[in-house]
């Protein structure tokens, strides 16, 4: 994020086999800004062979949300 952007919600999205990592689980931080824009960190927080492996990289104190039926099919779960 640039210095002029203010984050109001950060979430960590766990993907199963996204296009850029077709054989892995990946965690990316997504941010909702005060102006309504959604930003995604270009560098994944974690990449690993299993869901359990990437979960170890999550910051402590988060709560898991199951995927919503309307989520992209690659989304396994979201952590807030």
Give the topology, please:
Blueprint: E1 7-16, E2 25-33, E3 38-40, E4 46-48, H1 51-55, E5 64-66, E6 75-79
Antiparallel strand pairs: 1-2, 1-6, 2-3, 2-4, 5-6
Description:
- The chain has one domain.
- A hairpin with an 8-residue loop joins β1 and β2.
- The two termini are 18 Å apart.
- It is built from one helix and six strands.
- Strands 1, 2, 3, 4, 5 and 6 form a six-stranded antiparallel sheet that branches.
- With 80 residues, it is mostly beta strands.
Query: How far apart, in Å, are the first and last alpha carbons?
Result: 18 Å
Q: Largest sheet, described in full?
A: 6 strands, antiparallel
Quickly count the helices.
1
Q: What's the mean pLDDT score?
A: 91
Shape by Cα distribution: globular
Topology as H/E string?
Answer: EEEEHEE
Strand content: 35-45%
Tally of individual domains: 1
The Cα radius of gyration reads 13 Å
Structural class by helix and strand composition: mainly beta
Helix content: under 10%
**Uncertain spans, ≥5 residues at pLDDT below 50?**
none
Q: Tell me how many strands there are.
A: 6
Features:
single chain, 80 residues, mainly beta, six-stranded antiparallel β-sheet, 1 helix, 6 strands
Quick structural summary:
With 80 residues, this protein is mainly beta. Helices cover 6% and strands 41% of the residues.
């Amino acid at each position: 994020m640039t210095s002029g952007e203010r984050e109001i919600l950060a979430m960590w999205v766990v993907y199963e086999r996204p296009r850029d990592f077709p054989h892995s689980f990946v965690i990316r931080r997504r941010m909702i800004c005060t102006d309504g824009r959604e930003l995604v960190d270009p560098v994944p927080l974690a990449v690993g062979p299993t869901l359990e492996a990437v979960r170890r990289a999550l910051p402590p104190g988060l709560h898991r949300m199951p995927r919503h039926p309307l989520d992209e099919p690659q989304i396994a779960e979201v952590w807030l």
